[in-house]
Amino acid sequence: MNFTPKRVLENPHDIKPYPTVEKYMTKQLIVFKPSQNIEEAMEVLVEKKISGAPVVNEDGDLVGMLSEKDCLHVILESRYLNFPASQGLVKDYMTKTVASISADKDVVEVAMIFENSSFRRYPIVKRGKLIGQVSRRDILRAAVDLKSTTW
């Protein structure tokens, strides 16, 4: 009897025991452009009932995130500095330093990242390009799917 596997892996260390975050991330994203009007972006956040969205340039590179907190600055400037919000652009208010997660991270690695962070979601990048977003809920969904597997 031969118990040799039919398929031999070149590097068995490349196998991840858990699926990558790419399987559970949201791929259909609302994104903003840096040159987009800030009031329009705020209207989208309210209309779509989301608390933030990635900002990408023309090449699809992640260049920032626009959050509800960022938008509060618009209100404060408009009120206290007499700055007309209608003239502001997303790039003027977005957070430029963005923590992101690589698409090849497995769901357990991402769960650890969330556990040690106050963020509720992270953009997912592959070769510098935004390809999706993962939330805590996405990782919980992965846990339910993997409940028969030992974490």
Automatic annotation (TrEMBL):
One Pfam family linked to the record: CBS
Key words of the record: CBS domain, Repeat
All copies of domain CBS, residue ranges: 25-81, 94-149
Gene3D superfamilies linked to this entry: CBS-domain
Name this protein carries in UniProt: CBS domain-containing protein
Species, as recorded: Flammeovirga pectinis
